[in-house]
Design brief:
This protein has helices at about 5-15, 45-55, 85, 110-125, 155-160, 200-205, 280-290, 320-335, 360-370, 400, 410-430, 440, and strands at about 25-30, 35-45, 70-75, 95, 100-105, 130-140, 145-150, 165-170, 175, 180-185, 185-190, 215, 220, 225, 240, 255, 260-265, 275-280, 290-295, 305-310, 340-345, 345-350, 355, 380-385, 390. The chain is about 25% helix and about 25% strand. The strands form seven sheets. Strands 6, 7, 8, 9, 10, 16, 17, 18 and 21 form a nine-stranded mixed β-sheet that branches. The chain has a five-stranded mixed β-sheet with strand order 1-2-3-5-4, sandwiched between helices. Strands 11-15-12 form a three-stranded antiparallel β-sheet. The longest helix has 19 residues, at about 410-430.
Length: about 450
């Protein structure tokens, strides 16, 4: 966008707000005082401002005269951009101007644009301060061990990090400095479609709490009862709530250097193992690949899961080159000897439409075993196509679940599908080959290997 277009957009948007009652929230992004970013959020809608209050970090001792925002977000859903006049691609625009330290959001009522705009800001300024910015959730175990969960929307970051047996640091965005990890936010933004009280009790309880913002959730007009299974508006139904609504949340929003890193993927083709152990080179490969599925409802026009690659598990929000973030992650994994796991929360027994989604109870059991060290002493089988080390057994999980080929009715169909996905990995990774070591290039799937061999 040309500067002149941005200036015209700014003037016109402000002009449209003249005389309207607006809502202002002064808050911070970043729980570590050394790196926190003072921000100001200006909204046309009151519920958007409550969303900002829930999702960002409030100053416990607010003093308006001392809060000097380094970035300001102006959000006006009623304003429609004009592509010719404003240099936009449509009537909807999210424009970030680093020189002006200003974010303009117009034409969209989706509250998530505010948090992702500030996330994009942090993804630029923090790496320049030697802090790795990450699209991940984080929690801490009883022994003080921190774990990170990378993944795109719908892969289970929020669900799997909200574990009653561990303390929640945050569910979506974190920084990793020389001091450890810290949450960027002060709240959570959980998907609620078909939310289960039994499987996800902590998140489910927040939908009944005063102060939670429910977005796109269908409510009975007479009884006011929620219907979390109703997707008539969209599958992207959300709950935005302060992290304090989770009983076992870490109030400081900070944790130690992680001992375990989990990379979540929702494999729509049903061929990736439900859990596998990655080498440091494999961690770099899969971080750069960011393989998952776009889940229905998260993006316009996506009505069923489709395979996609989103580098660093957050490509739309990364202003710097992907290799910059990958090198920072690799350095930290090596320095702190973190173990890295690839976990498939997608399909098994066949692709989407034929197979079934992984049982959340099985996934939770596998992650518990990985984080507790229960998988350290088991034997591993090497997957010849995906070049992954798969545990031969896992407490509380049926053995056949661990090897996806065994879950397919016709193993030959699995072989065909697995090689297809391996080729997709290889084709996608060509973008990064020149910027990584030979060891990282060799850590990916092997397109010429049959799953039944090896």
């Amino acid at each position: 966008m040309e500067s002149a277009h941005f200036d015209a957009l700014h003037r016109d948007l402000l002009g449209s707000l003249t005389g309207k009652e607006l809502y202002v929230q002064d808050c911070y992004a970043g729980a570590d005082p050394n790196y926190r970013l003072p921000i100001r959020i200006i909204n046309e809608y009151a519920w958007h401002n409550l969303f900002a209050r829930n999702l960002f970090i409030l100053d416990p001792n607010p003093a308006p005269e001392t809060h000097v925002p380094q970035f300001t977000v102006i959000d006006s859903p009623s304003f429609q951009a004009e592509p010719k006049r404003h240099g936009t691609r449509s009537n909807v625009v999210i424009a970030l101007n680093f020189a002006r330290k200003l974010v303009l959001i117009a034409g969209s009522s989706y509250a998530g644009e505010m948090k992702k705009s500030i996330f994009s800001v942090l993804n630029y300024i923090l790496p320049l301060k030697n802090v790795l910015s990450m699209h991940c959730s984080a929690n801490i175990g009883p022994a003080g061990d921190t774990a990170l969960f990378f993944g795109l929307s719908g892969t289970g970051k929020t669900t799997l990090s909200s574990d009653p047996g561990r303390m929640l640091v945050g569910d979506d965005e974190h920084g990793w400095s020389d001091r450890g990890i810290f949450n960027f936010e002060g709240g959570c933004y959980a998907k609620t479609i078909r939310l289960s009280e039994e499987a996800e009790p902590q998140i489910y309880s927040t939908t009944r709490r005063f102060g939670t913002v429910l977005e796109n959730v269908v409510v009975d007009p007479e009884t006011r009862a929620l219907n979390l299974d109703d997707d008539r508006l969209t599958e992207n139904t959300r709950a935005a709530y302060p992290i304090a609504f989770i009983d076992n949340a870490v109030s400081s929003g900070q944790g130690s250097h992680p001992k375990n890193i989990v990379m979540l993927t929702a494999d729509a083709f049903g061929v990736l193992p439900p859990i596998s152990r990655l080498t440091p080179a494999g961690a770099m490969y899969h971080f750069l690949s960011g393989y998952t599925a776009k889940v229905a409802g998260t993006e316009r026009g996506v009505t069923e899961p489709t395979a996609t690659f989103s580098t660093c598990f957050g490509a739309p929000f990364l202003p710097l080159a992907p290799n910059h973030y990958a090198r920072m992650l690799g350095d930290r994994i090596a320095r702190h000897q973190a173990r890295v796991w690839l976990v498939n929360t997608g399909w098994t027994g066949g692709p989407y439409g034929t197979g079934r989604r992984m049982k959340i109870a099985d996934t939770r059991a596998m992650i518990r075993a990985a984080l507790s060290g229960a998988l350290d002493g088991v034997g591993y089988e090497h997957d010849p196509v995906f070049n992954l080390d798969v545990p031969g057994r896992c407490p509380e999980v049926p053995a056949e679940v661990l090897t996806p080929r065994r879950t397919w009715t016709h193993p030959a169909d699995y072989d065909t599908q697995a090689l297809k996905v391996a080729h997709m990995f290889a084709e996608n990774f060509k973008t990064f080959e020149q910027g990584v070591t030979a060891e990282v290039r060799a850590a990916g799937p092997r397109c010429t290997t049959s799953p039944s061999s090896g």
